[in-house]
């Protein structure tokens, strides 16, 4: 298992160097030891978690259930081919623009994995992928994107419609939002068709 610098341990724990030193002296840093030069070695918990993978598969609608199963299996095969140990598989039907996905929230709160495997960036989220990457890397975790190619147009349209519906619901109330959404979508389709 790799070590982290003692100052990095303190930073990761959100405490000062002196507080980390007191924690070490009290024996509250598991596996930490001091060498003959006085350097304190702290085991990096991320190095133990890195080979443990959590697979996350997502589709936008229930009509894509079969694709969800195939996507999850592709990511399991991908993770195993990369030498990762799959410890959990999460499958979800939800919009990529939806920020309240219960299965994803539960997965992110879990501490038994170090690598999150997704097929495309947009399978994790349509917006803010880099924030996920930054926050997970601060925890010593990482995201492995199997395919960096462009996302599918149909999924983009589903998510776009979800965003339109959400905004119109906020602006006009739930009752009128569905009709206004339909009118806006029709206008966009007419514009795209050149009418």
UniProtKB/TrEMBL annotation:
It comes from the Bacteria. Residues 52-194 form the Resolvase/invertase-type recombinase catalytic domain. One of its GO terms (molecular function) is DNA binding. Gene3D superfamilies: 1.10.287.2170, Resolvase, N-terminal catalytic domain. Signal peptide: none annotated. The active site is at 60 (o-(5'-phospho-dna)-serine intermediate). The keyword DNA-binding applies. Keywords: DNA integration, DNA recombination, DNA-binding. SMART domains: Resolvase. This is Predicted site-specific integrase-resolvase. It comes from Crystallibacter crystallopoietes.
């Amino acid at each position: 298992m790799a070590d982290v610098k003692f100052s990095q341990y303190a930073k990761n724990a959100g405490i000062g160097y002196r507080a980390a030193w007191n924690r070490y002296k009290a024996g509250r840093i598991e596996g930490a030891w001091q060498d003959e030069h006085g350097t304190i070695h702290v085991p990096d918990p991320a190095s133990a978690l890195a080979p443990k993978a959590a697979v996350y598969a997502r589709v936008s609608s229930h009509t894509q259930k079969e694709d969800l199963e195939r996507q999850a299996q592709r990511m399991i095969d991908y993770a195993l081919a990369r030498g990762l140990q799959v410890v959990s598989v999460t499958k979800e039907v939800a919009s990529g623009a939806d920020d309240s996905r219960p299965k994803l929230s539960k997965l992110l709160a879990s501490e038994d994995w170090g690598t999150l495997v997704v097929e495309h960036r947009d399978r994790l989220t349509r917006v803010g992928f880099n924030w996920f990457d930054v926050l997970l890397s601060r925890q010593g975790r990482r995201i492995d994107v199997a395919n960096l190619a462009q996302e599918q147009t149909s999924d983009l349209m589903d998510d776009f419609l979800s965003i339109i519906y959400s905004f119109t619901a906020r602006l006009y109330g739930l009752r009128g939002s569905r009709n206004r959404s339909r009118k806006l979508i029709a206008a966009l389709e007419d514009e795209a068709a050149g009418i």
